[in-house]
């Protein structure tokens, strides 16, 4: 009994084992493979490109600065005197024409003293006339005419020219020449009591008033020419080679929107240490200009041959650009000749070179791209 039971258990165990194997094989055959994912297709980056062509190019040189008067005169007194008005009121902003009296100082005392010196010369020459008639009879008519024309209230004429050394010593011994030159000095000093306008202009500063007692060396005011101004600006040493004397400049005022033309008149020789810029002076004229106005503009720079003008924003690190070569991005260095506010002039690029205009995030060298020609 025991033996038969054991055989039954062993037989059942074997059947279960083989049945499990057969079932696993059947189920394995019925299981389908999981679907395969299709490969992801990546789209190429599309950029805008510029096809370059070498040729001539010029770049404007930017300038800016404030106007200053071309002619400015500080007025100082050289003599004593009470201030009086000249041709017009002694006020700031008053205009004068060339030759008009700016300031008149009281010269009555000096004028009377000068008239006394002339009268003294008249007396002196009259006293020596008899001696001249005896010693130099051929010279007597000239000296007699001189005495007759000498007027203490008028500027004296030159003395008759001495024809011999003996005559010259004779006159010197009588003090005639010494008196004559003293009068000439006083006449010259008398002119200093009037300050004359050297050109058409206006008073921009007045330091005295009518009735002020003015002393030698005292500042009276400031006078500047109207309508003639200078713009003091500066330029880099690199741009200096493209600027010449007499070159035209276009300037504009941001305040009134007017455009003015100017000419380069002077170029400084000294480089400013802090900015490494060279001063340049431009003559400007026109209606509506005032000293201190701010103007900005540009000079049309010199022309360079066989170059390419690129927008400045295309430069990376100051001297690198993206170009397309064999449908791939390539980073190349360029030789920069000049740079301006918006453009950079470069050389060394072949005609037809494709320069990338778009700088997009994630661009790497060697990346394949599509492009659109702008």
Plain-language structure description:
The chain has 374 residues and is of the alpha+beta class. It folds into 3 domains: 44-70 and 228-374, Efflux pump adaptor protein, beta barrel domain (Elongation Factor Tu (Ef-tu), domain 3, Beta Barrel), CATH 2.40.30; 71-102 and 197-225, RNA polymerase II/Efflux pump adaptor protein, barrel-sandwich hybrid domain (OB fold (Dihydrolipoamide Acetyltransferase, E2P)); 109-191, no CATH class. The protein contains 6 helices and 21 strands. The protein has helices spanning 2-30, 108-135, 140-149, 165-173, 176-190, 237-240; strands at 45-51, 55-69, 72-76, 81-85, 95-96, 101-105, 194-196, 201-206, 213-214, 219-225, 229-236, 248-253, 259-267, 277-284, 294-311, 320-325, 328-333, 335-339, 343-347, 354-356, 369-373. Strands 2-11-14-13-12-15 form a 6-stranded antiparallel beta barrel. Helix 2 runs antiparallel to helix 3 (140-149) and helix 2 packs antiparallel against helix 5 (176-190).
Strand portion, in percent?
35-45%
Total of domains: 3
Structural class label? alpha+beta
Report the uncertain regions. 37-41
Helix content: 25-40%
Question: What is the CATH topology of the largest domain?
Answer: Elongation Factor Tu (Ef-tu), domain 3
What is the average per-residue confidence, as pLDDT, rounded to a whole number? 85
CATH hierarchy class name of the largest domain: Mainly Beta
Tell me the CATH superfamily of the largest domain. Answer: Efflux pump adaptor protein, beta barrel domain
Output the strand order for the largest sheet.
Answer: 2-11-14-13-12-15
User: Rounded to an integer, what's the Rg over CA atoms?
Assistant: 49 Å
Spatial shape: rod-shaped
How do the SSEs run, as a string of H and E?
Answer: HEEEEEEHHHHEEEEEHEEEEEEEEEE
Number of strands: 21
End-to-end separation in angstroms reads 102 Å
CATH architecture of the largest domain: Beta Barrel
